[in-house]
Write a structure and sequence with these properties.
Chain B: Its main location: membrane. Chain B: One of its GO terms (molecular function) is transmembrane transporter activity. The complex is a heterodimer. Chain A is α/β, with parallel strands linked by helices. Chain A has two domains: 133 residues, Rossmann fold; 69 residues, no CATH class. Chain A is 41% helix and 25% strand. Chain A has eleven helices and ten strands. In chain A, the strands form two sheets. Chain A has a six-stranded mixed sheet, with helices on both faces. Chain A has a four-stranded antiparallel sheet with strand order 2-1-4-5, covered by helices on one side. The two termini of chain A are 32 Å apart. The relative contact order of chain A is 0.16. Chain B is mainly alpha-helical. Chain B has eleven helices and four strands. Chain B starts with a helix and ends in a 14-residue tail after the last helix. At the A-B interface, α2, β6 and α3 of A face α6 and α7 of B. The complex binds adenosine-5'-triphosphate and magnesium ion. Magnesium ion binds next to α1 of chain A.
Chain lengths: 266, 299
């Protein structure tokens, strides 16, 4: 359904962020996109959703196809209308607006009131907490509730593909688990998901397929189950040591180890 | 007492004019974090067009006004479309300098087109029209100014709270990238902000011109007087602009009315500085203005 072919992106004409990344998202599946800080995950999402120009970035190679049509020159508005919505890293809810206003902002591209009502009801049943707080200021919600609102807001456009950028960021373990279950539920209703995560364990537990991105290239692509099982991959790429959640410091250390790692792979 | 009430009435009317001009600043600032320094000159062009339409082309005032609004809206939209749209994502300071450029261009155009002498302002009322209540003279132009401002504020409130485009504007103001990610067409939001701001500011200018009877190429400086009002209210707050405007109008008219009774050392120009004194005082207590949000960067 969505296909990235050798996508290369640079920022400000000089800073390369993606160097020929290819990736495929079939209909109705969850694809996990993993990688360390600065690997280019967010950039890849921006390339899909049309947000690169805002960051003075541009696609300098390759193409992006949605249902066979190129979408890499389209405006973000057009891309949302075609059925792809991105949830930005760090939630980014409109904190001065109410929960309801946030949700309706998510439906701004939708012209049909019946469709808006349907999407709204779906969001309310997915996130009962939001239903209780419809008219409170979104800024007063807890971190987890804000993440739910961010996802709910994106669902208001009834996307066929949802792009999630690190939804577990800064959340307590039980909340990470809830977000994971919500992703599974959204997917069960037929929405494909591209899930960017640092929390590889969570991501792979819900994804069908996983990609590992490193310095702008896809270095590994495999079914999620396999990525979870293979000990080498777990340790070297995903930084998982039995249930342990990595801290940023740990990741930095890994990055150095990875140089030796690469030699071992080739 | 009647004297005091008279001053309060006049101050409220003047405050409404600052409020309208200030609304222009804050609508643009809120949507795009740009302080539009060409605001005063948009207003200048608008009032000249209205004056010309009435005095030279003999149009009725009620036709001249929309014509003036239309001209400034078109200028605002063109500027947004041709210049600002290419500057999205550039530093606010760069954009601010560009608006100063537009300001100079517009003022020059006015001088080239109309000359630099003073011309009478267009007005639909006789200067003395109005009526008296309990010894207070309620002039037609002041009454209209207050009435128009109240209606406009109510309309804006409805627009921002209850319409799609209003919601799109508020969302964009809070987080441009998040708004884009929702499919909100931010370019349309900017265009809308510029069109609205140009029209509201021009309306303020035309009402001010009615009050001051005549206009010249320095008339756009009125926007500078509205500036303390929006800083006071909070640069990014639409309701703050209105309340700030009224506070500034009241204090400046009240000081003007009573300063002759003060000791001579204070001088007779006190009313010109009180708006700034009030602004500084309030900013010392509330650095982001009365209603401003903490996120606003100080420029
Ligand atoms: N707006 C920008 N301007 C310039 N360079 C950028 C910009 N955004 C990202 N980059 C650079 O592009 C590369 C990829 O960044 P990106 O944000 O896509 O990584 P990421 O995988 O999402 O990392 P993280 O896990 O930290 O979110 C990095 O080297 C980063 O410094
Ligand atoms: Mg990122």
């Amino acid at each position: 359904m969505l296909e990235l072919q050798d996508v290369a992106v640079t920022y400000q004409n000089v800073i390369p962020a993606l160097r020929g990344a290819s990736l495929e998202i079939p209909e109705k599946v969850v694809v996990a996109l993993l990688g360390t800080n600065g690997a280019g995950k967010t950039t890849l999402l921006r390339a899909i959703s049309g947000l690169l120009p805002l960051h003075r970035g541009a696609l300098v190679g390759g193409r992006i196809l949605w249902a066979g049509e190129r979408i890499d020159r389209l405006s973000p508005t057009r891309i949302v209308q075609l059925g792809i919505t991105q949830v930005l890293e760090g939630r980014r809810i409109f904190d001065d607006l109410t929960v309801d206003e946030n949700l309706h902002a998510g439906a701004i591209t939708v012209r049909n009131p019946a469709a808006i009502r349907r999407a709204y009801d779906r969001v309310m049943s997915l996130f009962p907490v939001l239903a209780e707080r419809r008219s409170s200021r979104a800024g007063y919600l807890s971190g987890g509730e804000q993440q739910m609102l961010a996802i709910g807001r994106a669902l208001m456009a009834s996307p066929r593909l949802l792009l999630l950028d690190e939804p577990s960021l800064g959340l307590a373990p039980f909340m990470v688990q809830r977000i994971r279950n919500i992703i599974a539920e959204i997917n069960a209703e037929g929405t494909a998901v591209l899930l960017v995560e640092q929390n590889a364990q969570m991501a792979l537990s819900v994804a069908h397929y996983g990609y590992v991105l490193e310095t702008g290239r896809v270095v590994l692509a495999a079914p999620a189950a396999r990525l979870l099982q293979e000990e080498n991959i777990r340790q070297f790429y995903l930084g998982l040591r039995e249930g342990e959640r990595q801290l940023a410091l740990g990741r930095l250390r890994q990055r150095r180890e990875r140089a030796a790692e690469r030699r071992w792979l080739s | 007492m009647a004297y005091f009430l008279q001053l309060v009435f006049a101050g409220a009317a003047q405050g409404c004019i600052y409020a309208l001009i200030g609304l222009g600043f804050s609508i643009i600032f809120k949507a795009s974090q740009v302080i539009n320094f060409a605001q005063g000159e948009l207003l200048l062009v608008g009032t000249y067009v209205v004056a010309s339409a009435v005095l030279n082309w003999h149009l009725p005032f009620l036709l001249a006004l929309p014509l003036g609004l239309l001209v400034t809206i078109v200028i605002g939209l063109l500027f947004e479309r041709l210049v600002l749209r290419r500057m999205i994502g550039r530093p606010p300071f760069t954009i601010l300098m560009i608006t100063i450029g537009l300001d100079i261009i517009l003022r020059t155009l006015v001088i080239v087109g109309w000359g630099s002498r003073t011309i009478p302002a267009a007005t639909p009322f006789a200067v003395t029209s109005g009526f008296n209540v309990a010894g207070v003279h309620l002039g037609s132009s002041d009454l209209w100014t207050i009435g128009v401002t109240i209606v406009l504020c109510a309309a804006l409130y409805y627009f921002f709270r209850h319409t799609r485009y209003g919601l799109a504007m508020r969302a964009t103001a809070l987080d441009q990238e998040a708004a884009l990610a929702m499919g909100i067409d931010v370019r349309n939001v900017y265009a809308l902000a510029w069109g609205l701001a140009a029209a509201i500011t021009t309306l303020g200018g035309v009402l001010l011109a009615i009050d001051s009877l005549a206009i010249d190429p320095n008339f756009g400086n009125a926007a500078l007087v509205a500036f303390p009002a929006i800083i006071l209210g909070g640069l990014d707050s639409v309701s703050g602009a209105v309340i700030g405007g009224v506070i500034i109008g009241l204090t400046s008219v009240l000081t003007a009315g009573y300063e002759s009774r003060l000791p001579a050392v204070v001088g007779t120009g006190l009313h010109e500085v009180t708006p700034y004194l009030i602004m500084i005082l309030i900013l010392m207590i509330r650095p982001y203005g009365l209603f401003g949000s903490r996120k606003v960067e100080r420029i």
